[in-house]
Amino acid sequence: MLKHSYIKWIFIVLIFGGFVTWFFDKIPLYVLISVLIFWLILTVWASFDMRMNYFVKTHSSNTKVNRNVIALTFDDGPTEITPEILNLLEKFNQKATFFCIGKQVEKYPEIAKRMVNEGHTIANHTWSHTNKMGFLPEKDVVNEIVSNQKTIKKATGKECHLFRPPFGVTNPNIAKACNKLNLLVIGWNIRSLDTVISSKTKILNRIIPRIKKGSVILLHDTSQKTADVLEQLLIDLKEKEFQSVPVDELLQIKAYKE
Ligand SMILES: [Zn+2]
């Protein structure tokens, strides 16, 4: 059972018990309010940290692998930058995983097709990457995912088995949608912050010292800055004799449905 399921009941019992005890004047009200606030903070924190596996099981790295392998992952494409990313991966003979947005696949179907043709894995990152993702009802989460499944299938012939929620946010509705659609949730254990940090050196300094066997690295194929960072990162990986493989190969799971 997932943590969320039983922790929810522990708090419900605590709050009910606390309410009864407060009603009979045995504890002050602030104790009851503190428990409620703690539950709220835990829920919000867990929704932003997929690695807690709080709402849904998330695959974020492979700690058991004993080869020098990692998985480079790129979110939010395809964009006009993606061909340059693909050229670099080809030049250094490395494979990656692209968590694509449906709207972008519709705009650049040839790039999506190229990803698959060149041995990279394509995966689902919702249709629109809406900022409201964490607040959508289950039905709308399902629609976001299914629309993208159809678009990716039309462009590449592949039916994705892997999903990464936008912003790494999970909650009960996203968990239910993933279970319903039989999708595996993929996280990361190295976040480059390449959409936030402007200095390429700082981004590289966030990634390189953290690389270990089995790491999953989060990047975005949305800016020239990331393409520049990637080139240096690939040089570094080559020097350290690390190979990037598709995330499904690293985690030993299936990238696509049959
Ligand atoms: Zn994203």
- CATH C-level class of the largest domain is Alpha Beta
The run of helices and strands is HHEEHEHHEHEHEEHEHEH
Rg (CA only): 21 Å
The count of strands amounts to: 9
Mean pLDDT: 95
What is the third-level CATH name, the topology of the largest domain? TIM Barrel
Outline type: globular
Bound molecules: zinc ion
Question: Given the helix and strand composition, which structural class is it?
Answer: alpha/beta
CATH architecture of the largest domain: Alpha-Beta Barrel
Largest sheet: 6 strands, parallel
Question: Which blocks of ≥5 consecutive residues have pLDDT under 50?
Answer: none
Q: What distance separates the N and C termini?
A: 27 Å
**CATH superfamily grouping of the largest domain:** Glycoside hydrolase/deacetylase
The percentage of residues in β strands lies in 5-15%
Number of helices: 10
Determine the fraction of residues in helical runs and give it as a percent range.
40-55%
Please, how many domains? Answer: 2
What are its keywords?
258 residues; alpha/beta; 6-stranded parallel beta sheet; 3-stranded parallel beta sheet; 10 helices; 48% helix; NODB_dom
Task: Give a description of the structure.
The protein is an alpha/beta fold and 258 residues long. The protein folds into 2 domains: 46 residues; 194 residues, TIM Barrel, CATH 3.20.20.370. The chain is 48% helix and 12% strand. It is built from 10 helices and 9 strands. The strands form 2 sheets. Strands 2, 3, 4, 7, 8 and 9 form a 6-stranded parallel beta sheet that branches. Strands 1-6-5 form a 3-stranded parallel beta sheet, with no helix packed on it. Strand 7, helix 8 and strand 8 form a beta-alpha-beta unit. Helix 1 packs antiparallel against helix 2. The mean pLDDT is 95. The structure holds zinc ion.
